[in-house]
């Protein structure tokens, strides 16, 4: 019990860092195109009840390891957990059940990670030393001191990927992206560090109103930096660094999945083309999103809240999409709904009270 | 840091120190104003802004925090960013020469005579 309490305390601290201190809860611009948290009273009660019921149903037939593997990446689990942390109380579960769900999700993250699930040391370590050794060995590295344009082009690629991911997934970006590291590596005999950026689902037709011809399903970029750069990862995969990344890049390697083929990003012209294609797609999708009315943006953001839980629904053999009746409820409730007020009043104490599964609502 | 006048303060969102000319862009319709190597000043940025952000050497915004779009994208691009300055688009004008200090979250005016 003491161990459970300690884990819950750590989880709340991590959630505080990722959601409250970072400004996700209070900043209207923390999420694009809207901060869906402002509108959560419109759908939280229904969604949290259904998430909890479906998760408990799934637990009857699947082990935590099976569910973790369906989520694939720790950040995808964390994003699902973050829904439970903040809404599990509205599902009218008992204290012990609420704690159990939170602890199980933490356990699932542990299955998928090598380092601390709370990134206590500022690192997001997913791969073990053996995996790193293999990845380093098989990569066809481009030395950016010999080809400085590649450092710039990869930085452009990183920014472009992030923007496309945000354009498609809005508040569910971490359900399809994992930036991890830094892993200590050797580069030409000297100590260096590797950051891996995995965008493993750049296309999701069910979230878009139009057919897309975007050719890349996934893009992975490996970048080796010198040790002067200090990275700091909070629990989610957003990170900070203290020095210019372009200037401190030593080597890069990357590939894009086009259908079943891997396209290696080892030519300037190709990399430039990939960046252009990504930018064009990000622009097209974002213009659609920004052109929606506020009400329809809320409806679309609810879909993306459900999207975070799709591995659970897939294992249950159900569709992940929210019900039509819920979306209609959101549409009907929207005109008279006054957001922001409750969020502005959010204090740190209130935030903890809302999220701590040990405190009854 | 140079002894220059601080004209704006905000949140230090991405590391780096650069100086250059300002381009103020308020909406997507003004994207054509952007030129390579300029400092982009905007109310806030969002995914479509990637087209102008990639041309910028630094970004300053009125709104946003550490995890807002301009902050996370600038960290990936590796260019300095100061966000949440409240009134950058009002105080800074096209062609102004400024220094963006992403380490301190400060914007300095650079005198015409010094460049």
TrEMBL record, chain A:
Protein origin, superkingdom: Bacteria
Put simply, this protein is called Uncharacterized protein
Ranked from the top, the taxonomy reads: Bacteria, Candidatus Brenneribacteriota
Automatic annotation (TrEMBL), chain B:
Which PANTHER family does the entry mention? PHOSPHOENOLPYRUVATE SYNTHASE (PTHR43030:SF1)
**How is this protein named in the record?**
PEP-utilising enzyme mobile domain-containing protein
State the similarity comment: Belongs to the PEP-utilizing enzyme family.
Identify the keywords attached in UniProt to this record, alphabetized.
Answer: ATP-binding, Nucleotide-binding
For this protein, the record's Pfam families field holds: PEP-utilizers (PF00391)
Record keyword Nucleotide-binding present = yes
* Record-annotated PEP-utilising enzyme mobile domain positions: 35-105
One Gene Ontology term of the molecular function aspect: pyruvate, water dikinase activity
Which species expresses this protein natively? Answer: Candidatus Brennerbacteria bacterium CG_4_8_14_3_um_filter_43_14
Would the keyword Membrane turn up in this protein's UniProt record?
Answer: no
Task: Look up the domain of life of the source.
Answer: Bacteria
